[in-house]
Write a structure and sequence with these properties.
Layout (H helix, E strand, L loop, with lengths): L7 H14 L5 H13 L3 H6 L7 H15 L4 H5 L1 E4 L2 E4 L9 H17 L4 E6 L5 H9 L3 E7 L2 H13 L6 E5 L7 H4 L4 E6 L6 H5 L3 H4 L10 H4 L1 H13 E10 L5 H9 L4 E6 L5 E7 L8
Parallel strand pairs: 3-4, 3-6, 4-5, 6-7
Antiparallel strand pairs: 1-2, 7-9, 8-9
Helix pairs in contact: 1-2, 2-4, 6-7
Length: 297
Amino acid sequence: MTNRAWTVIGILRESARYLEGKGVDSARRSAELLLGKALGLGRIELYLQQDRPVTEIELAEFRELVKRRAHREPLQYILGRVEFCGLDINVAPGVLVPRPETEELALLAEKELRELAPDRIRILDIGTGTGCLAVFLAARLENARVDAVDIDPVACACSVSNAERHRATDRVQVIQADLFSDGFLAMVTPPYDALVSNPPYVTADEHDRLMPEVRDYEARHALVAERNGLAFYDRLAELVPTLLKPGGRFFVEIGRGQDQAISSILNGVTPDHVILADTAGIPRMIRGVTREEIPIC
């Protein structure tokens, strides 16, 4: 951008063209949100004030934001937030950005757990990241108490900030722990009524082909799993009988094309499970119920 006098609408047009040339998807939307951040305005306010002159100080701040986006830094990291199921969620650099598919998982779990309607329901969220699942379920289910687990201290801090933001610290406990460690069960307090998770399920080869926003900025350990993306589900099958009560429920996101392999992994311990498609018709979630105890006669 030159040093000519700029108005809101002129900046939007120019920056959208610039970002599009850098390969940024939805370049106009990025320009709107970044300019809104620089000016402290919402999207509608930008267009209501489209002829407003922009000061040099405001323009300098905006240029820095656009530069970051042009380098393909995720928009959510630059803004520091993302909307998840109607909640404003803090996002820290390196922490997995919540996806629309995970919103579908959250809504499924909330609906089914609400229908159970016990006086108190204990939920374990594995790989909590921003804490979006844990905070959403705690906010929507008054009788829920959630243990939100992640191996990454940055993710744990982000989860705490979101629990604080939505006044759920009395219902969300954040725990730093490694699911694959021998001491994992000692770090949590099973048995739980339900388990939710958006785990890593991307293969190393798939990771290399992801968009730069994901491949170069989001934490690799939150995306990539060993054994062709299936390591988490192997561990889940091993621990579910201990982590969940008899008749406990789990709601877990899965990767594209993994449904049959994951179903086979879980058949031995939780035969009562079903693969569910997202709104695009892609198998994206597995919902299951653990075996009830058989009474001894």
